[in-house]
Amino acid sequence: MTTPRAGTAVLPGLGRWLGAAGRFLSWWRDALASWLPSRWRVLFGLAAERLLLVPQDDQVALLRAGQAGLEPLATVPLPLTTADLDAVLSPRLAGLPRWSLLPAVQVLRRPLLLPGAAAERLRQVVGFEIDRQTPFTAEAVYFDARLTRRRPDGQIEAELVVVRRQGVDRALEALGPLAAGLAGLDVADAHGQPLGVNLLPPAGRVRGAGPARRWNLVAAVVAVLALAFAGWQVLANRRAAADAFAAQVERSAASAREVAAKRQQLVDLVEGAKFLQARRAARPTTIEVLDELTRLLPDSTYLEKVSIEGDRLLLIGLSPQAPGLVKVLEGSRLWTSPALTGALQMDRRTRLDRFSMTAQLAGPKPPSNTAPAARRNANAG
Fold first, then answer.
1. Torsion, Cα of 357, 358, 364, 370 (10° steps)
2. Nearest-angstrom CA–CA distance, 62 and 80
3. What is the pTM of this model?
4. Distances in Å between the alpha carbon of 18 and those of 10, 11, 86?
5. What pLDDT is attached to residue 372?
6. Distance CA 41, CA 242 (A)
């Protein structure tokens, strides 16, 4: 015992889906075409028109079959070639698919009741019913089937149409060279209208490039161009987005560099301020210098000018003991190397010596200033 492969179960389901999709598209196309004027339907190839060739003794009648019914065109004698037929017809009529029409007396029609699933492969299904429904074998006839009604219970009503091969062959021989260009072989009903079947085998049918196929080709080209344009537009949008993102990143990078430069500038300013503060903290303040001078200079000495320029101290004043001031100021920890500059001059009004003295500021802060800071650090700890 062999088990069927998975593909055999999938393909029938796929075929049913494809068949349903094809029927929906055909219905949708016909529904849209019904809203168009008849001239537009003919122009766009949406009108189901055919050129029927009906043999009549030594002549052939030309009929145009459309939605409005049958329209007689002309009757031409046989034999007739394809070039002769094209010369008789207009270019639009010459481009219609060519069918032959058999009279109703030559065919056998049998109604059939089949399951709904048979609608997908109706012609193949009815091919197995020929032996039971007709007195002929499948090899002795040409046949086709048409769907007439779908019942509410899911079954379908179909009709089997059969014609003997000898009758079809005689009809095709009557047409002569025109038989090679037929797209189908239809049957007339009781009212003379085409039944809507094709008795020609699929291998013997001529598939011409009708207007609908040309429009489909144009639509396919337009679709490809639209798809290419859409892809190009998407690529252009991506590139524009990438350029905008790169510009945004560049602006962000420029802002970051500017912020980094300002931060570095601020750090430099803070470091410079710390450096200057440290330099100032390493030297005594002006108040400390004045207090030290007041403490060391004798009461008979008067100062006219006290100047501090950087780490240089300049003193100008009057004193009766000017030469001895150098020794007096040497004992301070706030400056070093006190020395007189220039010659001493007698002031006529006070009879005191005018002196000019310089010193170099140096040394740590006095204990009076460092003690409070030490106490604050101790408290913080």
1. 50
2. 12
3. 0.47
4. 12, 10, 37
5. 46
6. 48
Q: Do 143 and 130 contact (CB within 8 A), yes or no? A: yes
Taking CA atoms, 366 is separated from 77, 249, 332, in Å, by 141, 57, 10
Percent of the chain with pLDDT over 70: 79
Q: How does strand 353-361 pair with strand 335-340?
A: antiparallel
| Tokens 């949708």 sit on residue | 28
Distance CA 355, CA 324 (A): 11
Which pair of structure tokens corresponds to residue 103? 């009279």
Specify whether the CB–CB gap between 336 and 329 falls below 8 A: no
Backbone angles phi, psi at 377, to 5 degrees: -65, -40
Question: By three-state DSSP, how is residue 310 classified?
Answer: coil
Q: Where are the alpha helices (DSSP H) in the chain?
A: 6-34, 38-43, 82-88, 91-94, 122-127, 130-133, 165-175, 211-282, 286-296, 325-329, 367-380
Hey, what are 42's tokens? Answer: 């003919």
Cα–Cα distance list, 317 to 71, 291, 297, 357 (Å): 141, 16, 11, 9
- Give the strand order in the sheet containing 107-114: 107-114, 156-164, 141-150
DSSP 170-198: HHHHHHGGGGGG-SEEEEB-TTS-B-S--
| Site of tokens 């009557």 | 174
Q: Tokens standing for 2?
A: 């062999």
| Contact between 27 and 149 (Cβ < 8 Å) | no
The alpha carbon of 253 is separated from its chain's Cα centroid by a whole number of angstroms, namely 28
* Residues 6+ positions from 21 with CB-CB distance below 8 Å: none
Q: Is 209 helix (H, G, I), strand (E, B) or coil?
A: coil
Round to whole Å and give the CA distance between 199 and 180: 15
DSSP 78: S
Q: Please state the φ and ψ torsions of residue 380, each to the nearest 5 degrees.
A: -65, -40
Q: What are phi and psi of 192, to 5 degrees?
A: 85, 5
Query: Which amino acid appears at position 182 of this protein?
Result: L
> 113 is written with which tokens?
């009741």
Confidence of residue 240 (pLDDT cuts 50, 70, 90): very high
pLDDT of residue 26: 66
Q: Which domains does the chain have, with CATH numbers?
A: 33-208 (3.30.420), 286-361 (3.30.1360.100)
